[in-house]
Amino acid sequence: MAKENKKEKRQLKINIVVYLVLRFLVIVCMVEQSLKGNWHSVALCFLTLILFTLPTIASKTFKVKLPTTLEIIIYLFIFGAEILGEIQNFYGVFKHWDTMLHTLNGFLSAAIGFSLIDILNRTERFHIKMTPLFVALVAFCFSMTIGVLWEFFEFTADRYFNTDMQKDRIVEKIQSVELNKENKNDPLIIDDINKTIIYSDNNKKTTIEGGYLDIGIIDTMKDLIVNFIGALVFSILGFLYIKDRDEYKFIERFLPVMKKFKEE
Questions:
Q1: Fewest C-beta atoms under 10 Å: which of 37, 73, 86, 106?
Q2: Measured distance CA(115)–CA(226) in Å, rounded
Q3: What is the pLDDT of residue 125?
Q4: Domain spans of the chain, in order of start
Q5: In angstroms, rounded to a whole number, what is the distance separating the alpha carbons of residues 213 and 217?
């Protein structure tokens, strides 16, 4: 028991250190961006500080205990998405930064969905006992729902607030029935595109070198696919964990648990 308490104290210290270091870096970034007059970035820093409080708020509100590993990953995820991704432009500098974050999001969302169902499944107050396969399926669907809702948010922000969260990319081939002059359901295929010229109403000409500009659909589908992969990986691990909780005990590092939960 003493050894377990010592381990918990050590994990708590690690958690506090990570939290304080990341919070300090965010404040430094906020000061830097304010000196440069980048108020949008300052707002993102402020938002990040608020998001850092969510694990604590969730823990107190829902009376759940977040494992140290999960809590640290959440802090790093927020920091990586807002500060490194948006302000430091890691999305542009590192090709797969966004892919990594969406994969991780799929994994963590599945973990949260899995823990919610597993807690209900193990208490006598819940009269329906779900099979391991069904619990894993619910966790997977929960994660995919979160992923889809986030893509809805990105689409809304791009459409109504002139952002570019659904990152565009250059493609060299398009196919569309809209280009079929005979109005048939037969897509016209244009490939080997090397340049696109856009004429605006104000007589402004914009040239896109290298191909045609895909407006976000590839980024959206890529995000959902990697979310699918992350959710699938954890759902499989969750299924195995229910089958043998001792063999796959490491999964508990990612599972929130009720503070007063006791298996009866």
A1: 37
A2: 21
A3: 67
A4: 1-94, 95-168+215-264
A5: 11
Amino acid at 19: Y
pLDDT tens per residue across span 223-249: 999 999 999 999 999 999 999 999 999
pTM of the model: 0.87
What is the Cα–Cα distance from 108 to 81, expressed in whole angstroms?
A: 14
The burial of 150, by beta-carbon neighbours within 10 Å (0-12 exposed, 13-18 middle, 19 or more buried), is given as middle
Contacts of 199 (CB under 8 A, 6+ apart): 205
Sign of the CA dihedral with 251 first, then 249, 68, and 112 last:
positive
Q: One-letter amino acid identity for 185?
A: N
Triad 113, 80, 100: Cα angle to 5°: 65
Residue with tokens 């597993």: 118
Integer Cα distance of 206 and 94 in angstroms = 26
Contact 172, 211 (CB under 8 A): yes
pLDDT classification of 112: cutoffs 50, 70, 90: very high
Phi and psi at 209, nearest 5°, equal -80, 145
Cβ-proximal residues to 243 (8 Å cutoff; 6+ apart), any chain: 132
Contacts of 233 (CB under 8 A, 6+ apart): 107
Give mean pLDDT, residues 60-88: 92
**Encoding tokens for residue 195?**
């340049």
Question: What distance in Å separates the CA atoms of residue 135 and residue 116, rounded to the nearest whole number?
Answer: 10
pLDDT digits (tens, 9 = 90+) for 201-225: 888 999 999 999 998 999 999 999 9
